Structure formats: structure tokens, C-alpha cells
Amino acid sequence: MFQILSWTVRYLFIGLIYYFIYHIIKLIYLDIQQINNRQKKNFDSPYLKLVNRKESLDFEVQEFYDLKDVVTLGRHRDSDIQLMDKFISSQHAKITMDEGEYFLEDLGSVNGTYLNSTQIQDVVKLKSGDRIGIGQVEFLFVKEVD
Questions:
Q1: Backbone dihedral region for residue 116 (phi beyond 0: left; psi -120 to 50: alpha; all else: beta)
Q2: Which of 33, 50, 74, 96 has CB atoms 3.0–4.6 Å from 92's, for a disulfide?
Q3: Percentages (nearest 5) of helix, strand, coil residues in the chain
């Protein structure tokens, strides 16, 4: 009886290990696929890349957002980047391009907009590698060097 229980526990444990390895490989594959999809588009324009794990958020969010001349972020359906986070205001922040440079501005949000973990009070210039935090979401600003 003890030997049967021992074998059962052993095979269950081995099965759990394989299940865990399968999910790790699946996550790696999906991440590589997202990066390849981004590269296939061959965009040279600046973009925002999600830093959070998508699974940890309780709302839909894309992995990449391409930036136009003016991009608004918020909960409102008219926002260019709509994020249904309860900690994000309906019109939370705006990213604007002026003379080839991008600037981040908080639009009077309740919980604030953060650049590299520091709350911004005024319009700030973005540089590649900056981390933009709004609500529970954190983005990486990426601008390819010419």
C-alpha cells in the first residue's frame, strides 16, 4: 500500500514539474512572438513598450503602442491609449511630439504621472529608456537613434 502511494506521489510530482516547464516555455514563446511581430512591422517611430506582465493586470493592454504627434492616455474611450485601470483618470496624461522630441504631460490626474519613479509636475522631455508610470501600468519609452 505504501509503495503504491509513493509511486503515485512521485508521478504527480514529475507531472507538476513538466506542467511548470511547459508554461515557462509557453511564456517565453509568446514573448518572442510579440517581439517578432513588432520587428516585422519595421517601425522606426518611437513607441511605448509595456513593462508589466500582462497577466498581472485585470484589464486589456497591448504590448506595444506606436506614438503619433499627440497621444493621450486615460480611461476615456476617446483616449489614444485606453487603459481601464481604476487608478487612471479618464484623461490622465499626454505625450506630444515637438520638433522631433517627445514630451510627457500630466493632465491633472488624481494619482499622478511618474517618470522614472518620480512624479512629474510639469511637461518633461522624454529620452529613450525612460519609464512612464500611470496607475498600475508602467511603460518603457523607446526611440530608435537615427
A1: left
A2: 74
A3: 30, 30, 40
Positive/negative CA dihedral, 78, 82, 85, 89 = negative
How is residue 128 written as a grid cell?
529613450
Which of 8, 102, 3 has its CA nearest to residue 48? 102
The answer to whether 41 and 64 have CB atoms below 8 angstroms apart is no
Q: In the structure grid, which three cell numbers stand for residue 6, read together?
A: 509513493
**4 HSE (CA, 13 A, CB side):** 1
Q: pLDDT for 12-66, tens place per residue?
A: 999 999 999 999 999 888 877 776 665 545 456 788 988 887 667 778 888 888 8
